Amino acid sequence: PGEPTQPNACIDNTATPELGPFDGLHSSYNAQWQGPFLGFEVEGQRARISGLFRVEYHLADYDGWGQLNLRPEFQQPRSFEHTSEGNGWVMNMGVGYQLTNSFSLDFMSDLQSWKAREGIDRLFLADGSVAEERELNSVEWQSYALMLGGTLRFR
Question: How far apart are CA 92 and CA 43, in angstroms?
């Protein structure tokens, strides 16, 4: 039996330039999902414990826009925009414990999942023209939240 063979390897010792921080960097991106939704909610209470479950299905128009403030060749403050259509799911669950007749301690969870299909990606030049209009692949966004709070009821 011979020695195991090893693949040829090439090591590049070229130094990688250091990235960031960049003075004056204030680029931004804003996203908005808008549209109708259908949902249902179930609430209940037994003794001192209350519960909630809610689910929503959304049809959404997606709009995103951003500023590339360190790129003077692009329009400011709106350097590019994204448009598409998509959908989303929102789910909430919560439980509360009534400590007194007027105060309860609450725990809530929130889960959201959104997806926009292929759309349009537009890049705007400083002279006001559209530099490029190309296909936006897709947009996906997920979030979750865990919340602890209290409810004070005035009677």
Answer: 11
Rounded to 5 degrees, φ, ψ at 9 are: -125, 145
* pLDDT tens for each residue of the chain, 155 residues long: 455 444 444 455 566 667 778 888 899 999 999 999 999 999 999 999 999 999 999 999 999 999 999 999 999 999 999 999 999 999 999 999 999 999 999 999 999 999 999 999 999 999 999 988 999 999 999 999 999 999 999 98
Encoded tokens for 114:
């959104």
What's the CA gap between 102 and 48, in Å, rounded?
Answer: 11
Judge contact between 92 and 110, C-beta under 8 A. Answer: yes
CA distance 81 to 30: 9
DSSP codes joined into one string, 119-141: EEEEEEBTTS-EEEEEEE--EEE
Q: What is the pTM of this model?
A: 0.76
- Cβ distance 30 to 78 under 8 Å? no
